[in-house]
Amino acid sequence: MRCAGKDFWPELLGAKAREARSKIESENDLVKVVIVKEGTFVTHDYRCDRVRVWVDKHGTVTRSKTQDLKNAKMAGQCVGKEDWPELLGAEGTVAKETIERENSTVKAEIVLEGTIVPADLVRVCDRVRVWVDTCGIVTRVPTIG
Fold this sequence. Notes:
Radius of gyration: 17 Å
Low-confidence stretches: 66-75
Order of helices and strands: HEEEHHEE
Distance between the termini: 30 Å
Structural class: alpha/beta
Strand order of the largest sheet: 1-2-3
Helix content: 10-25%
Number of strands: 5
């Protein structure tokens, strides 16, 4: 089903919720913006008159409209937070949990330094490799791809 008017705002990823609400409502007056904190349970019904804007604990937009995640991935755009420099030097299991909590569209996998992994020909938006040393400490900045 396709709804009338603009229904996807990837340019708002990283913006503040108030700014996102204002822009969305000014660009499509047929929708009501609903701000949703990541991790909140919501119904999975599709409604043309609603745009969900997902935010982290700081009120920063991580995604908008669950049903548009597929469209973003097909367009080569990753959704939500893409890298975690603050996890460099952290414990790998803690990093994995943090990444998956902060971006629910990705699956983090712990990889031991020195492990050979296949090269990707295209950007993979639903995976983050968490490289760790033999003590389980993160050795590279975890990044989507």
